[in-house]
Amino acid sequence: MKTSLWLTSVLSLIAALALPTVRADLPEYLRKSEPAFSWKLSEKVERDGDTIYNLQLVSQTWQGITWKHALQVCQPKGVRPTSVLLLRNQGGQPNAATTALDLELARRAQAPCACLYGIPNQPLLGGKTEDALVAETFVRYLESKDENWPLLFPMVKSVVKAMDALQAFARQEWQMPLEGFVVTGASKRGWTTWLTGASDPRVKAIAPMVIDTLNMRKQMDHQLETLGAYSAQIHDYTERGLVPLPKTATAERLWKMVDPYSYRDQLTMPKLLINGNNDPYWATDALNLYWDGLRGDKWVLYVPNAGHNLEQKGADGKPDHSRAINGLAAFARHIIHNNPMPQLTWTHDDADGQAHLRIHSTPPATGGRLWLAEAPTRDFRKAKWVSRPLDDKSATAAVALPSKGFIAFYAELDYTIGDLPYHLSTTLRVLGK
């Protein structure tokens, strides 16, 4: 009996020594204290009635590296402070174009807009940036099992610490409490938006943009099936052996920690997903692999003939960002000013050799259209999207099965909030002979 107990103790000790020495999944990483955290208002600029506050933020120390950020608050003329703030996160540093964008978002949302820069801090780890940097940190996690490595963790924590700083700023500058945030960002910053929403109760709503890849393992399989190969845009991950996703316990834990779909039970706040139909990163119908699994109120806005930058190409070839900007601003205005979003539902069914899309909206939309694209395969990334009117009375559409190749379609409905027009979409469907 004593020998058995001794052997059990030794085996337990060996097992304990074999475990990762540093464990810090996302919730644990966010709970860690950050002695380096600090913020200060460095400049207040007033121009033509608009006010721009420039803050300096230190969010944390990650792997011995201090993360520093510019944090800018834009308050246009005539826009009063609100208890819920639109918070956008992006890379780089403020410039004239990004400040102009945030001022315009704030005008249309009728609420101040804050933007957190330096998500992530880069270049790092030998001059790496963007996806190459993310992939490097994933590889380092797989090699070391140090769960502090995945770059999404400090990216999320930066947004959390920005919320801390903005609440203190509002008390100091506006003499009012800041109770919550509508968080948004694009691409990796959209990824960060999802994970921040799952992590902090101050996030009242999220609007992730062009990160159409939740349920990641199924998405990678779907890319192969749909596109014939993994998208060239994710080469930083394929070249490092991260895609196809390794089937090891450590890799499974990594993707579970960074895939927003793993956190869907926490993602119950209102959500507006903004995607480009011709985004080269993802399969056109990628949303269908996770839409039904999302909890709570949700809406989607597709931008036709637009890629990863949501820059829609008009008939004249000129770029147009108004669909994305109006959609984001309208969503923020609805949430911030406690004005309910439209309730939009739809069903698909097949009859008489046609695919039928039936839509119900409360309140009724002011207009709508069906967007369609054709392609020889299921790869629609270079397809041209064209529109045709919906049946105004019944908000239904019928699409004939293609005689060859494939056709993709979805409906778009028109709404207004105050003087701001915007659109909401249904999910899209792909049909083949």
Provide the descriptors you would attach to this structure in a database record.
10 helices; disordered N terminus; 9-stranded mixed beta sheet; 433 residues; globular; Rossmann fold; alpha/beta; 30% strand
Overall description:
This protein is an alpha/beta fold and 433 residues long. It has a single domain, classed as Rossmann fold, CATH 3.40.50. It contains 10 helices and 19 strands. It has helices spanning 2-18, 26-31, 96-109, 130-144, 152-174, 188-197, 216-227, 235-238, 249-258, 322-336; strands spanning 38-47, 50-62, 65-75, 84-89, 113-116, 180-186, 203-209, 271-276, 298-303, 312-313, 319-320, 343-351, 354-362, 367-375, 386-389, 396-400, 406-417, 420-425, 429-432. The protein has a 9-stranded mixed β-sheet. Strands 14, 15, 17, 18 and 19 form a 5-stranded antiparallel β-sheet that branches. A hairpin with a 2-residue loop joins strand 12 (343-351) and strand 13 (354-362). The longest helix has 23 residues, at 152-174. The protein is globular and about 65 Å long. The protein starts with a helix and ends with a strand. The model is unreliable at 1-21 (pLDDT under 50).
